[in-house]
Amino acid sequence: MEQVKKEKSIIGQINDMSHKMVLMLVMPIFLSLVLMLVYAGKYSMAISRMETIASLKPIVAEEIPETAWNIISGRDTIEKSKIYGRLHTVDEIIDDVTGKTGQENRLSLIVAGRTMKTLEKYVDQIRDNINAEVPVVENEAVLEEIREVSSLVDSMLNDYIAAEIASTGRMSGTLKGVIIATAILEAVIVIAALWIRNRSMKKTAAFVRTPIENLEKVAASLAEGTLDARIRATEVTELRNLTTQVNTMADRLETMMKKSVEDERNLRKAELRTLQAQINPHFLYNTLDAIVWKAEAEDKDEVISLTSALSDFFRISLSSGADWIPISQEKKHIEGYLKIQQTRYRDILRYEIDIPDEIGNYYILKLLLQPLVENAIYHGIKSKRGGGTIKVSARLEGEDLVFSVKDDGAGMTPYQMDQLKERMKKSQPNSVSESSGGFGLVNVNLRIRLYYNQPKGLNIESDSSGTKVSFRVPCRTREGILENESISG
């Protein structure tokens, strides 16, 4: 495959375009938001200052002159009236607001603050006159001065509020202008962003179209069976990875086709060896010897039973070439086989078959249980002193059938288990000899996986107390497999 000099990522191009558009759209909004927050802060502070100054007007214009009159008329005293406290409070508030006000509006407050000092001097004069017991007429003249000065301070406070209102109005106009300018700028930017987006989309579409068309052509060729079709390298990063994967898929398809042929060959070998195992000459000779022995002992019933069991065993093993048989026949096949083997190993072999008649009409792949039973006899029961019991069972679980063959024989060591699992994983029955043990298990495991198209075949559990071999397969009915499978009725 040719080397690509420079890669370009679709995602990278889209991200670049997105980032630019986001920046273009966000910056004006951000700036206008900052300006609005700044002006809103100034506006709020101006309102707060005006409210504070407005709260001083009743004190200056009404309360202070009225309190002075109460003192002069004798209704109240200097100490009880707290007139100095009010003067100081007003003075401090004016000083504080003056410090927070801009240069253009603080002049009125500065003059008002100085005038408050004059107002305090007049109160001092009233105090001194009262202490000196001067005539009330003189204090009334001072009271007129206090009223005039209070009115003057009130006027100055009004001037300050008017100036702040005017300043706030100008600020509101400026803010309105900023909002209008921002809206116009945002509209222009949106139009520009849409233009850039359309241009970028066309460029990206042209950038991707050609390699995608090449992918479509090669994929069509592969679908038609032309497995030597390959895709040339592309400069698009994402499509380059896809190109490599499609080419790899084409390579693997050839490999899988070869493997499929080999698996089919192995399956046929497994079936042939399974059939050969059923017609084992030693098994046949030993069974015939047992029949002869029973005949010589004139045990007519046993001869008939053994001969019938042997006949059923080979008839079901052959099944007229069928791959699938009812569970009832598989059960009969196992019964015949165990009947014959119990005649040979009467003292050491006991067995139980727990296969309900309710599932007898379901179909399974033939010769799945007999190799497991044979393995249990030769590698479990015979290896245990005193013999043992083999239990064959089946049950229906939902849409699946679960079978198990369990013995209480010698069991397998961890090393033997590992060796057997390794051979089963390789699924190569032709590499396992009967003498080495495990041929039947490996063979059945392979047939279950291939015929039922499932990743798992046999499940094996073994320890010193015995071995249990089980497997799970989906239920099959006669109608379900009649169309495309060979069955035995």
Automatic annotation (TrEMBL):
Catalysed reaction equations from the record: ATP + protein L-histidine = ADP + protein N-phospho-L-histidine
Entry's localization field: Membrane
Signal sequence, renumbered to the chain: none
UniProt superkingdom: Bacteria
A GO cellular component entry from the record: membrane
Transmembrane segments: 21-40, 177-196
Coiled coil: 239-278
Gene3D superfamilies: 6.10.340.10, Histidine kinase-like ATPase, C-terminal domain
One Pfam short name: HATPase_c
Enzyme class name: transferase
Histidine kinase domain span: 365-477
HAMP domain segment(s): 206-258
EC number assigned by the record: 2.7.13.3
Keyword annotations from UniProtKB, A to Z: Coiled coil, Kinase, Membrane, Phosphoprotein, Transferase, Transmembrane, Transmembrane helix, Two-component regulatory system
Entry GO MF terms: phosphorelay sensor kinase activity
PANTHER family the UniProt entry points to: SENSOR HISTIDINE KINASE YPDA (PTHR34220:SF7)
The name this protein goes by in its record: histidine kinase
